[in-house]
């Protein structure tokens, strides 16, 4: 065990939650740096509590540390209190396990989960004393590699990364690290390693070998490789069989309470539903399930190896997992004696769910969550939500009969084709749910007298590789006007006293939209925002919209260009060179169906021919399924 600490006791006493920075957590992996050939720092560019809750990093940490010649350590964004001290005292950013400077590692892997962490990526590079721009890095710098959902449009970050790994991390790291060893043994430098990576390792995008050109109107005119042998398209990597895929049986247990303080069991990847606003639903196609017997073994091992008191089933839509009832029965049997809680996010609220919920948790403590996303059936058809008002009211009525009296409802404002009637529908639906409570629960059985309904609205952000990637996004004033209409609609309802309303920040949603569909020119904007002091932009108290607006203006760019215009279907998009397995033709078909408010079938009912069958796995090869 390493006893050294990068931070002195004096510094640790000055900062909030010093446990974020000292390492030594239970199940963390410590190796002898003298006996490994490759050192890999795996980074989540946000605070420790959020990074430690991320399953993807736990999987890759486990995968890389299972390689005898590799030591993978973790690093997170220092919170602003420590950030200030590190700059003042000239302390370089360090990895948790060894407390060694990141600058001395071979690789720095950064997972990019959401757009508003982009300035934190520059904070990480800066504190690690790695030049921000990939073009300025020398032989003594780590190779900076990005992964995660935001790499499906990597262009705004292209200047800062050496490599982007497109797709699921389990498949190519072995090959990439083998190539690194080979290049090192042959005395080949950084540039040649990157060139060979781009040419030889599938799923790798090396931005320095590609060039973008823009027209007078600012629209992307051409994009492609600038050297022979570099692929024009990069296809995503995918784990075709989850049965034997690696999974961390000894995840690192944090010292302090983190956002998801529980053991996570990933039951499947992908989603059959095809909601048109949802990027994850397209990126992780096709749906692939984990084997239920393997999951039972993992559950027992994970609880034993961590001492955690809660297990959570993770997937985009858990209700669609075919062996859910069997798995939940097993967990209830296994966990009952151990006082372990079971958490079931992403479930449809039906009789099965309520039966399970009443058995596994104290009804008094919980509230139920519905995500209708839109206030009218017409708009739910536009977004292909596959949820009717009848289903919502039935679920709520069953819940009220079962003793629940708190409901959370999630909606989006600013969806394509939205009208004032759709917005009014949000208040009306909340009112009908409240009415269902008063009709269902006799006065003498009502805890606290009334039902509590919390309506939350997020603002719609169009994302790449969704049918809405061509859609216009509202400007902040328009978003706020729609939030005002929602509040008014709720205040006019009979049961308004039972309904509370929250809405998101409009400015942040628009800037997220700029970064989500941006091009390479935004690299300069991100750098300027960082230089103006921008970090932790995903945190409301640190986000400053004026910094972003100023930086855009200084670079001769405008937010409206990226957000407020509907893109023509034939426009070259900055992410068109990536093949995520879902074809552009399918996305266009879905966009046109959305305009007509026509729903599409889910993958279990009928194949809509999205292109993901090309991977030859998962739901696409299940016998007896109707093909398109």
Describe this protein's structure.
This protein is α/β, with parallel strands linked by helices. The chain has a domain at 9-235: 3-Layer(aba) Sandwich (Rossmann fold), CATH 3.40.50.280. 34% of the residues lie in helices and 14% in strands. It contains 20 helices and 19 strands. It has helices at 9-14, 48-51, 55-65, 80-89, 118-127, 173-185, 190-200, 279-283, 292-306, 324-336, 351-360, 377-382, 389-401, 420-440, 476-491, 506-516, 522-531, 545-554, 559-563, 584-595; strands spanning 38-44, 70-76, 107-111, 143-147, 163-165, 204-205, 210-214, 220-225, 234-235, 263-266, 268-269, 288-289, 310-314, 341-343, 368-373, 406-413, 452-459, 499-503, 578-579. The strands form 6 sheets. Strands 2-1-3-4-5-6 form a 6-stranded mixed sheet. It has a 4-stranded parallel sheet with strand order 15-16-17-18. It has a 3-stranded parallel sheet with strand order 10-13-14, with helices on one face. Strand 3, helix 5 and strand 4 (143-147) form a beta-alpha-beta unit. The chain is globular. The mean pLDDT is 94.
